[in-house]
Structure formats: C-alpha cells, structure tokens
Design brief:
This protein has 355 residues and is α/β, with parallel strands linked by helices. The chain has two domains: 281 residues, 3-Layer(aba) Sandwich (Rossmann fold); 35 residues, no CATH class. 41% of the residues lie in helices and 12% in strands. It has 13 helices and eight strands. Strands 1-2-4-3-5-6-7-8 form an eight-stranded mixed β-sheet, with helices on both faces. Strand 5, helix 3 and strand 6 form a beta-alpha-beta unit. Helix 2 crosses helix 3 and helix 4 crosses helix 5. The termini are far apart.
Amino acid sequence: MLLAMDVTAQYAVAPDGTRLAWSGAGAGGPPVVLCDGIGCAGYVWRPLLPELAVDRRVIHWNYRGHGRSAAPRDPERMTVGDCVQDLLAVLDAAGERRAILAGHSMGVQIVLEAHRRAPDRVAGLVLVCGAPGRLIDTFHDRATLRVLFPFARRLVLRYPDLARLAFRAIVPTDFALQYALTYEVDAARVDRRDLVRYLDDLAEIDPTLFVRLLASASVHDARDHLPAIGVPTLVVAGERDSFTPMRLSQDMHRRIPGSDLLVVPGGTHVAPLEAPALVSARVRAFLADRVPIEGAPRLAAAPSAAGSPSETPPTPAPTKKRPRKRAARTTAPRARARGASRPAAKRKRKPPRST
C-alpha cells in the first residue's frame, strides 16, 4: 500500500528481474529515499513524508514481497543484500545518482549496507529506531526471540500453506492491535489507524518470505562499517523503544564520526508517529544544515517537544552552571526569603541586584 501523498506507482526492475514499486513526491535534491522496516509498507513515514516533500524530492519504495512490489521468483533471494541491490535499482529508475537514505527499524541495516557497497550513491543518512545488525539478538533486550526464531522458521518453511492461513488469521485482529497499543507503543500518542495499516500490510506478506528476510537480518551486521561513514548522519532513537533499545542508537552515534543524535522523549519504536512535529522539524533542520539544497536558505533550529530537550548526548553530561550574574538574579527572591534570619545590617549592605 502506498502513502496518501503518492499519486501513481512506478516500477523498477531488480537485477534478478523482481518488479519493485516506488513513488515520489516533491522536488529538489539530493532527494530523500525512505526505507521501511521488515513487514512494513510505509505506515511509519506518513507524517514525515509530506513535511520533507516541502523542500525536496522524496521517494518511497516497497521491498520485494512487500506492498506493491512482486515476490522474487527464487524465494531464497530474500536477503539484506538483495534489498540493497533493489534500492540501487530504484535510484536508477528514479534517475537519481545520489540520495539521502532514511531507514526505519530493519531499514537502518539496509541503508548502512547500501553505504558500504555504494558510498558514492549516498549523500547522507537518517537512521530511525534501528540497529546496525543482528536484529533479533537485542529484541526486548532478551534472548527469547533468538532462541525461538530458528524453531519458528523451520515450521513456517515446512508448512507454508498452514503458515499463510495462520498469518492472515492472527495478524490483522483486534487482539494484535490491543497488544501493540498496550505493550509496544504509546497508545495516547499513536493513531490507531496507523497500526491497523501496519497490521494489514504485514498480513499480506508471504510468511515464508518474511522469515527468510528476518533470518538474513539476524546475521547481517554493519557495526564494523560505522567508523568509515563519512556522510552527514542523523540518528533518531525512541527513549522507550523495546524493539531496538535506545542504547543501540547511542552506540551508532558514538561510532559514526560527526553524527547527530535525536532522542524522542518517551518515544517507542514508532517515535515518528508519536512525536511527528519534533521528528519532522529535526530531520528537516538537519538536512537543511548538513545536506542543503543548492541556493536554499537554512532552516532555524528545530524546537523541542513540550519543553523537553530534543537532543540527548550518548552519555549524560553534568549540567553546566549558569554565569554567576544570572544565578544572582534567579536566586534573589529565595535569598530575600531566607534573609529574615540574618542581621538587618548585612541585608542592607548587600541588597539584591535590580533587574
């Protein structure tokens, strides 16, 4: 399923002949290419896409076997490497030599691997709620999925028809929706319709392709490449992300030279849906400052959300004290309140500074 702003789907052809759906909005470059998480077809980018399209061209595409893209003829061709080749094919079809690659969740692995294989095609990176690799090792910061996944994968591949029936019967249900709203996202800040869209898209994926791609993501690792990244990079993390814990984003920020970090206060794995104004403003400001459109004016600094700091360093640092003069002004009323226990002469000799 394409995003609301998309007018018509266009198609690229992967090296193995797989037909890939993509669409674009806006104008100006370098463009931004949006790469989803596994099982997704654009739902998390809904509030960000139109904001980015104000300034430049935005391209969204579907992975093989996702959304409107076709499944590969060879089911074994469902790997991170295949998705990277698909991404480059979409860039070629869109007539773009270089682009800013934005990835969410597993999409972070895709764009990091794309930079490793074709750095000349990458103008910048936006890494949203993801990890550089081994996706299932850190899920909920427990080993549960790593232990259970091989067993589940064997069942799905051995009984594909039964797996398809179960996938489509269980995934798009009120039970799955309520579980997500209760345990995985901030229900007060997420539109239920976005999660329904996600579950509907997920239910349309062939589970045999899903487990093959997840198996590839579970062994892929781009951590060794992070220090070699020389393009402007923004890392976005959710403070309460349980799928890809915040510490993984902080570690990426530390390893990528000159990168920026945005931590969304209270954000989960769908932080762009929970704080759309904050994320959109910060991404736009980052792109305007670090990957500007030639001749375009720079944006002002992005505002914080509800008075909270929009950026968080990887390691908390002590708050710097304000200059002595400022401290005297802000603490003067408190000093006068305590002055009753001091000699009157002393208070007269050192009256509060006037503002």
